[in-house]
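hi support,

uploading two proteins for the ticket. first:
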Amino acid sequence: MPPEDDSRLAALYDAHAPSVWRYVVHLTGDPAGADDIVQETLLRAWRSPRILAQEPASTRSWMFTVARNLVIDDVRSARRRHEIGVADVPERGQEDLTDALFESLLVEEALAALDYEHRAVIVHAYYGGCSIAEVARRLAIPEGTVKSRLHYGLKALRLAMQEKGVTR
């Protein structure tokens, strides 16, 4: 390295290293790690001839950006996450489906309490995902009748659920 590069690198260090170090400590909370990041940032500046050719004051934002990217890379690295390899993959925990089972049994019992016409419209519309027109076509009834049966069927279903102790 020519002597002028040495002086520019020294000037770069004197002008920016303390502020970059404080910035990295602020980001990471790790003074020892900040030393490494500042050293790597200065190394990258030294390897980049265009950075050394600029005035030290104009490289400040470049150094902060490089330091920030190095912190991000370090946080994302496997070394930082302390990953430990294992021979067998652990079993996945399963969600407790007991409440969902009881809720489905309550809904099934409440639906069974409805008359056939109301139950058929509700099952096609909500469980079958059909539109009013599709329900009307499948059950061979007018769309207005589907809407009416849905309204009164849901009202009856709500009442049946309340009788079973489900409140909302």
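and the second one:
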Amino acid sequence: MKSIKTNNAIVHFNDNVYKELNAYIKSSNPSKIFILVDTNTHDACLPKFLSQVESGDIVVEVMEMPEGEDHKTIDICTGVWEAMSEYYADRKSLMINLGGGVVTDLGGFVASTYMRGIDYINVPTSLLAMVDASVGGKTGVDLGNLKNQIGIISEGSMVLIDTSFLETLPNNHMVSGYAEMLKHGLIKDKSYWNTLINFESLDASALNEMIYDSVVIKNKIVSEDPTEQGLRKILNFGHTLGHAIESYFLGNADKVPLLHGEAIAIGMLLEAYISTKTAGLSNEELKEIEEGILKTFTKVEINENDQKVIINLLQYDKKNSHGKVKFVLLDAIGKPKINCEVNNDILLEAFKHYNA
């Protein structure tokens, strides 16, 4: 697969990954290499990765964090910063983030702020991180249960996508990443959407081309609007309500936490319905979206009390401006609209439709 050039980095795939990584290490000659993993990737991915890295005399330090969204916090960042200081990391050190979206988001933030910024490389090991989290330079952590409230946009030196790591993933994490691929089709490419919804199995070996296509779609959007002043906002389709739902289920002891993609799938269903009320989406395409998403994702009960709390959480969404909640909606599949305002009556109607 041909490498993809982003604004400030390069995304390499499969056969090129370790050749390019080792060439980069040789040419940049970092003072030390720090590899951030979580408890899952430490066991499932690190041995293979280390066996491919040619570090020569450069010292390699491995730092391990707990796995899961609830550990994507500033406290974990502090622990990583302190560990790097203890091992004498300097401004010529290199950080490699080997893991899913939590590791690449947090690790990118840590690297971008340590000594005002050191070089870092993302090596995504989950489908979600491969098609979304690791590409585009968004780094950061959650603030309590509020998703990605603290962070900066800062691209690493490269992204290395080795799809063989997907073989280590449980099915629910594969499904979670699939939601972001579906989103890319809905906001940018109807033919890609059609390919995805007619895909029979989330088998890692068959996903290579579709992963590549998703990265191409996201990169085109980010390259035109790297700091999210306009076009890049379309990547938030399904995320306004989806992030609020994810935050609510994460912070409520009575609820089973949802994976990111599971919450975004619900958000896309809700925001597609809203699109038929306030944008131009037809009922026919709404039905197509609902059937396409529910073919893979199971509905989750969201009662009236849940809905009220979720709607209140919308005030923390990062797209908001001047106290107004801003949605990304669809005129049609592949034709998004940004900066849409929606009243609470329509939000409640969308939840009612979803539950029905």
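thanks. also noticed: The radius of gyration is 20 Å.
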